[in-house]
Amino acid sequence: MGKVVVFNHPLIQHKLSIMRDKNTGTKEFRELLSEISMLMVFEVTRDLETEAVEVETPICKCTCHVLSGKKLGIVPILRAGLGMVDGVTSLIPNAKVGHIGLYRDPKTLKPVEYYCKLPADSENRELLILDPMLATGGSASAAINFIKQRGCNHIRLVNLIAAPEGIARIQKDHPDVDIYVAAQDERLNEHGYIVPGLGDAGDRLFGTK
Ligand code: PRP
Ligand code: URA
User: Fold this and answer.
1) Which burial class, exposed, middle or buried, applies to 182 when counting CB atoms under 10 A from its CB (0-12, 13-18, 19+)?
2) Cα dihedral value 5, 171, 131, 20, nearest 10
3) 48 C-alpha to center of ligand 2: Å?
4) Ligand 1, atom 10: nearest CA belongs to which residue?
5) How far apart are CA 52 and CA 46, in angstroms?
6) 108: annotated active-site residue
7) Is 47 a catalytic site residue?
8) How many Å from the N-terminal Cα to the C-terminal Cα in the chain?
9) Model-level pTM?
10) pLDDT per 10-residue tile (average), the chain, 209 residues
11) CA-nearest residue, atom 7 of ligand 2
């Protein structure tokens, strides 16, 4: 079973509290999502492989460590995942960026696919899926399926807020995928929204409601 890492860092919790507030506007919401994504990816990448290299400083030669192993890629789930891209690429500027377009049918709550473009060499990369909300888990599970169909089996899921239902769904469908969240909330309501959550992440990010 994949692990679930819940960040309890004070800076992340502080920023997330402001995002949850219904009076926080689009500009601040967008900035905070980007900042939290950057803080999270610092921890998400903690166990990446490194290798020793020799570096000559102005003083002497020394052994240092640089990233080795699989190259990274990030895959935001459209739309709301786009709000996490800048924060992540500010720390991993060479990451290739794929996109998966999914929206949740409001009646059935099932994910509907409308776009999928992944890095050509996805099978050789470690891919981070980005989406602020893990509610029923249907969208994230479908996105992971697309990625696995391309031969990539090194996947981490990065969410801002997860419902227990979404975490359980990913652990059942994809026990090999680790999940990283800033907060685990209480439950889903009858419309499939996370409680207390922050409302509709895509609408709040892009100001469409
Ligand atoms: C939201 C969110 C996730 C999905 C989560 O997207 O960004 O992708 O819902 O719900 P689930 O876990 O029940 O599948 P939405 O469908 O609202 O699309 P949008 O980002 O384009 O607004
Ligand atoms: N999608 C959102 O944007 N918010 C939720 O609470 C659930 C799904």
Assistant:
1) buried
2) -60
3) 30
4) 135
5) 17
6) yes
7) no
8) 38
9) 0.96
10) 94 98 98 98 94 98 94 97 98 96 91 93 95 97 94 96 98 98 98 97 96
11) 193
